[in-house]
Amino acid sequence: MARRGLLALLLAGLAAAARGEAAAPQVVAIDAGHGGVDQGAVIRGRVEKKVVLDISEKIAARLSRGKTLVPFLTRRTDVFVPLSDRVLNAEAAGGRAFVSIHVDKVYGRKGRGAILYVYGANRRMPDGPARGPEERILPSPPQSQIARSKVLAESLRAALKAEGIKTVRYVDLGGFAVLKSSVMPSVILEVGNLRDEREAVQMCRPEFQERLARAVARGLERFLAPAATRARE
Predict the structure, then answer these.
(1) Beta strand 46-47 with 114-119: parallel, antiparallel or unpaired?
(2) Are 53 and 78 in contact (CB under 8 A)?
(3) pLDDT per position as a tens digit, 99-132
(4) pLDDT, one tens digit for every residue, the chain (233 residues)
(5) Taking the domains of the chain in order of start, what are their residue ranges?
(6) By the 8 A CB rule, do 216 and 71 touch?
(7) Cα separations (Å) of 145 from 29, 116, 122?
(8) Distance from C-alpha of 1 to C-alpha of 6, rounded to nearest angstrom
(9) Per the CATH hierarchy, to which homologous superfamily does domain 24-232 belong?
């Protein structure tokens, strides 16, 4: 009986696909880094928490125009949300992928363009800010989830490149708390370096932010809904 029921479900799914019925939209979490008392990088009057919120809102707006993905913003205003809560709230919302938006400020990495991170050990950098009392310690994600995160990162990197946005040629590693989901592939996207004047000016321009949003939306669509994306291309 169980096998008969499974076969019926499979046949129903195939019939729906044949009729061209759209699958239910999938939730994707867009995380604007920092917020509230945590300003992030502040260089020459440019403040990371504001820049990344502007970009995150544009990504959410771009995703909302389509029919395959639904955005979930971990913060919508200038407030600080504990890092563990960002992950857990996104999981509770049914998130199928998690993209955290940041900017870089490291001296030695000026002018390199966007950088993508997935979870992993990295001796060259700390794992992020010290945990406050409101933070919950999340376990490291399983290797299978890290592997999926790498696929997501490569999909985003390809979409950024196709949009003409300069990116580093590899996916980096970091032990950051927001990359610790056990159920969602998760990446950090650093869109540029605030210490590089050209990149800093660029990342604050609405037209560049729109291009970035278009690329992130396309990369997410190709990762989560490849068939629907191919049909439109």
Answers:
(1) unpaired
(2) yes
(3) 999 999 988 777 889 999 999 977 555 544 445 6
(4) 444 544 444 444 445 444 445 578 999 999 999 999 999 999 999 999 999 999 999 999 999 999 899 999 999 999 999 999 999 999 999 999 999 999 999 887 778 899 999 999 775 555 444 456 566 789 999 999 999 999 999 999 999 999 999 999 899 999 999 999 999 999 999 999 999 999 999 999 999 999 999 999 999 999 998 755 554 55
(5) 24-232
(6) no
(7) 16, 16, 18
(8) 9
(9) Zn-dependent exopeptidases (3.40.630.40)
Q: What is the 3-state secondary structure (H, E, C) of the chain?
A: CHHHHHHHHHHHHHHHHHHCCCCCCEEEEEEECCECCECCCEECCEEHHHHHHHHHHHHHHHHHHCCCEEEEECCCCCCCCCHHHHHHHHHHCCEEEEEEEEEECCHHHCCCCEEEEEECCCCCCCCCCCCCCCCCCCCCCCHHHHHHHHHHHHHHHHHHHHCCCCEEEEEEEECCHHHCCCCCCEEEEEEEECCCHHHHHHHCCHHHHHHHHHHHHHHHHHHHCHHHHHHHC
Pull the structure tokens for residue 90.
């996104």
Token reading at 54: 């502007």
Q: How far is CA 43 from the centre of its chain?
A: 24
